[in-house]
Write a structure and sequence with these properties.
heterodimer; A: mainly alpha; two-stranded antiparallel sheet; 2 strands; B: alpha/beta; Rossmann fold; six-stranded mixed β-sheet; four-stranded antiparallel β-sheet; 9 helices
């Protein structure tokens, strides 16, 4: 029973991480119809910049988190401007932007390797100490991640539902031409979506940088998991994406307990294939 | 006095394909003009070019004496030149009220949001009844109303309507015609693209017949007031 509880709590931590990653992917997808493969690399850049500000420059962790988040947002906007925007309206846009965002991922990973080197780095924790949830113990830092994720998701959701800017992102995603005809600046909406999504990735990276090691490829695994999440949940709706993130987090934690770390990725991909075969729009996804 | 809208020698199209060639037309203050002609001959392309969705390859477009040829759509909307697109689904997964509120997006329209919303709901009470519904669940007529309502939320000083009666029943056409008449009475000049000539005749002062991407005839209602004559011109041209 105690093992199961501990597993569920670790699933909650994983779910929070995936929810933050996948919601960023979802924002870009619903606005631009682009799947951003550089999303994990943006997370990694956020962590490295945070490390530089916090550790190398000694300006403190809070400054590092803010700087890492902002830097990721700026790089996200740059990626949108130079690697995605030139291909809008092109017939093969989806395929082209798979290539260009993959290229961005490689550039960022190799760039990070050149700048920061291969030595493992880690950020200090926001708070030391441990927290007990239902008898299972996690670090206080992980608890902050767990608490922050739903708050951020609700904030993003409210932003897209209530604010004019957030609504404009949804409108652009549903009909670019009509959005332009009511005075919405479509390229600006694209930049906002990318910037917001990248900021989320960067923030996730800065938080993860205290739990895992910061390496140039630290974004790959969360990106792959976020992909499984969005396929499982159906791309498009933020709520479905968030729900799927927690489900995948729990499943992953349970699989690690039952079949071990080695076979878990295999089982997750198998699950994804099964979902794609029987529910092409995802478990929670309605229409495509 | 300068015309409100002046289109001179405009050519435009999609990529290498030219759809409209050397088109010139104008709209004077307080005037309502209609564009008619067969489907696929460039009427919608012309509106899209005026709205900035398509960049013309030649010619100039000026609005209230300002050259808007190279402006982008949001700038053109903010200047007061607003197009209501064909009644397709605007934003299918958004709610009616949400869409109308969003449509007052430009700096110029935002302060008038509440007033314009009241005007739109007065004009189309049906949109009020459907305010919580997703746009994709609306009927064809309601979608058309929403499209025009959105354009009104932009606080237009010139309104361009693209085929407002497309696919509507005669009763709905009448209802819509009355509503557009009321918009016109508030002093907003209109450009209406339409296939239904009777609908157009009731709402406009001057007509342009557009064929093969060119303006082939200008019909001033003062000199050619007779409906049959216009019909003959239309079908004569279309067959000839």
């Amino acid at each position: 029973m105690e093992t199961l509880l501990a597993t569920l709590v670790s699933g909650l931590v994983l779910g929070s991480l995936y929810a933050l990653m996948a919601s960023g992917l979802s924002v870009v997808w619903t606005t631009l119809g682009v799947f951003n493969f550089a999303h994990g690399a943006l997370m990694m850049i956020g962590a490295f910049i945070a490390w530089t500000i916090s550790e190398a420059l000694g300006l403190g962790l809070i400054a590092g988190i803010a700087g890492g988040t902002a830097a990721a947002a700026v790089i996200g906007i740059v990626i949108e401007r130079f690697l995605v925007r030139p291909f809008y309206g092109s017939r093969a846009m989806l395929l082209i932007t798979v290539m260009t965002t993959l290229a961005a991922m490689i550039i960022l990973e190799k760039g990070a390797l050149m700048i920061w080197g291969a030595r493992l780095k880690q950020l200090p924790r926001l708070v030391e100490g441990e927290v007990s949830i239902l008898g299972a113990t996690i670090s206080a830092h992980e608890a902050i991640l767990v608490a922050l994720a739903p708050l951020l998701l609700i904030a993003i959701w409210q932003f897209t539902v209530r604010s004019a800017t957030g609504r404009s992102l949804r409108a652009v995603g549903q009909n670019q031409e009509s959005a332009a005809l009511i005075g919405i600046d479509v390229p600006v909406a694209f930049a906002i979506a990318f910037g917001l999504s990248a900021a989320l990735a960067g923030l996730t990276g800065t938080l993860l940088g205290s739990i895992r090691f910061i390496t140039p490829t630290m974004g790959v695994e969360p990106l792959v998991k976020a992909m499984i999440v969005v396929i499982f949940g159906g791309l498009g709706s933020l709520g479905a994406t968030a729900g799927a993130a927690y489900v995948i987090g729990f499943i992953e934690a349970l699989l690690i307990l039952w079949i071990g770390l080695y076979w878990t990725p295999f089982a997750l991909f198998l699950l994804m294939i099964v979902v794609l075969v029987f529910r092409p729009n995802g478990i929670f996804g309605g229409r495509g | 006095m300068d015309p409100i809208l002046e289109i001179s020698g405009v050519s435009a199209g999609y990529g290498p394909i030219t759809v409209i060639r050397d088109m010139s037309l104008h709209l004077d203050a307080g005037e309502r003009i209609g564009l008619f002609g067969p489907n696929g001959h460039g009427k919608t392309t012309l509106l899209k070019t005026v709205s900035g969705l398509i960049r013309p390859s030649a010619g100039t477009i000026s609005f209230n004496g300002t050259d808007i040829t190279t402006l982008r759509p949001p700038e053109i909307v903010n200047a007061g030149l607003v197009q209501s697109p064909q009644g397709n689904v605007l934003f299918g997964d958004m709610r009616v009220l949400e869409i109308l509120e969003l449509a007052a997006f430009t700096r110029r329209a935002r302060p008038h949001r509440a007033d314009n919303l009241r005007t739109v709901l007065d004009l189309f009470p049906r949109l009020g009844e459907r305010s919580g519904q997703l746009a994709r669940t609306l009927s064809g007529g309601e979608r058309q109303m929403l499209s025009i309502g959105c354009a009104l939320m932009c606080a237009p000083t010139l309104l361009m309507l693209d085929e407002p009666t497309l696919g509507l029943s005669p009763r709905l056409k009448e209802e819509l015609s009355a509503a557009i008449g009321r918009i016109s009475q508030t002093g907003v000049p209109l450009v209406i693209v339409e296939q239904d000539i009777e609908f157009l005749m009731a709402l406009t002062d001057r007509l342009y017949l557009i064929e093969h991407g060119e303006v082939v005839r200008e019909i001033d209602r003062a000199s050619t007031p007779d409906h049959d004559e216009v019909m003959q011109l239309y079908f004569g041209e279309a067959m000839g």
